[in-house]
Every structure is written in C-alpha cells, then in structure tokens.
Design a protein that fits this description.
The protein is α/β, with parallel strands linked by helices and 222 residues long. The chain folds into 2 domains: 33 residues, no CATH class; 184 residues, Beta-carbonic Anhydrase, Chain A (3-Layer(aba) Sandwich), CATH 3.40.1050.10. It is built from 10 helices and 5 strands. It has a 5-stranded mixed β-sheet. The radius of gyration is 19 Å and the shape is globular. It is an enzyme of class 4 (lyase). InterPro entries: Carbonic_anhydrase, Carbonic_anhydrase_CS, Carbonic_anhydrase_sf. Reversible hydration of carbon dioxide.
C-alpha cells in the first residue's frame, strides 16, 4: 500500500469509467438529483456497505453511520441528518440497521474497555441493563446477537420520539421507521417487525418486536 494511496485513486478512476460506460451521463444526472426515499442509520463497520446491501445507486439512499448504530437525543450529528432527510429530502422511510456479531455491541455486553468509544457505548450498555434479566437467560453464544437486535429496537424507538419525526407525523407527512439486522454470515437482512408509521403505533410495534426477539432466542439457533 502506497503512502499516497494511489491504488484507491486508480480504483476510483476505473469505477467512474465503468459506471459511465454502463450508463452514459450517469454523473451528469447525479449532479442535479438527490431524491432518496430512504434514510439508513447503520453501524460504521466496514463490512456493512449500505448501498450495496440493498443494491441501490448513489443518490437513492441517504446514509448515516456510527459505532453500533446509536441514535440518542443529545447527538446533534444524527439529529441533523434525520432533520435534513425528513424536512429537506422528504424521505419516506428511516431504517435503523444493526448487524450480527457487532464489535461495539460485544464490547458493551462484556464491559470491555476500548478507550474513548467506551463513553459512546454506554448507550448500548443502557440497553443491556434494561434487558439484563432476560439476556442472562439466553445462551451465552447468542447473547451478542440478541443484544444487537434489542439495540436496534431501542434506537428505532429513539428515532420515533425525535422532535423531527414527531413534527413530521403531526403535519401528516409520511415517515415510516423500521428496525432491521444484517447477517454478516449470510449477507441477508432481517426485518425485526419494528415498523412504525405514526405516534400511536410506537408502543405496540415495540412490544410486538420485543416479543419476537424473545421468542426467537428462546428457540434453538438455526
């Protein structure tokens, strides 16, 4: 690997040439168009490339990523992304996506000390503490993925209670919140059935999704 990372520029040049060859005028059209229907809030893990997982082109998916796909009401970065997506881009779906064997979630589960990120992962530890009694009943080999799914539910519920989403629903703008998990082992997305289209749906959707997780992890692993 070169100091100047010339190999990445070479890759970029080939990608741009191949893209333009497949679809002449692609980049010219992209200049004047950003009309995504979806906001993806996912983990920063390099193994989870949002656009590729759902086979969407640049301009079709608005993306925000951080360690362990956390959404908290003090994070102005995430809230600003949500506000721009909802108010300016008029996205219709906000999808919170965790992934199996997440390193951040694993650290939160086991109380590993990693440095500055420990402070960020306290949000995931809060999820762990909230569900600790049930998590302790889960097979230790499956506890990380169980907490991954619980974390998605909590963060999706946080999205639902942001002022941005609440205000959008109040003016009857279509915004649907989803909670999904991506399997690193098989490349497939799983819908956790945390699907919320209005303020009156939040508690019922959360309870149903939580029951689904508990039922799934009570059964033997697939």
């Amino acid at each position: 690997m070169s100091i100047e990372l010339t190999e990445l520029f070479d890759n970029n040049r080939r990608w741009a040439e191949d893209t333009e060859a497949r679809e002449p005028g692609f980049f010219t059209k992209l200049l004047n168009q950003q009309t995504p229907q979806y906001l993806w809030i996912g983990c920063a893990d390099s193994r989870v490339p949002a656009n590729e997982l759902v086979d969407l082109l640049p301009g079709e998916l608005f993306v925000h990523r951080n360690v362990a796909n956390v959404v908290v009401h003090s994070d102005l970065n995430a809230l600003s992304v949500i506000q721009f997506a909802v108010d300016s881009l008029k996205v219709k779906h906000i999808i919170v996506v965790g992934h199996s064997n997440c390193g951040g979630v694993k650290a939160a589960l086991h109380h590993w000390r990693l440095g500055l990120v420990d402070n960020w992962l306290r949000h995931v530890q809060d999820v762990r503490h909230q569900h600790r009694a049930w998590l302790d009943t889960v097979d230790p080999a499956r506890q990380v993925d169980a907490l991954v799914e619980l974390n998605v539910l909590e963060q999706a519920r946080n999205v639902c209670t942001t002022t941005v989403v609440q205000d959008a629903w109040a003016r009857e703008q279509t915004v649907v919140i989803h909670g999904w998990v991506y399997g690193l082992h098989n490349g497939l997305l799983k819908d956790l059935a945390m699907t919320v289209s209005g303020p009156n749906d939040v508690d019922e959707a959360y309870a149903a999704a939580l029951n689904g997780i508990r039922t799934r992890y009570a059964a033997p692993a697939d």
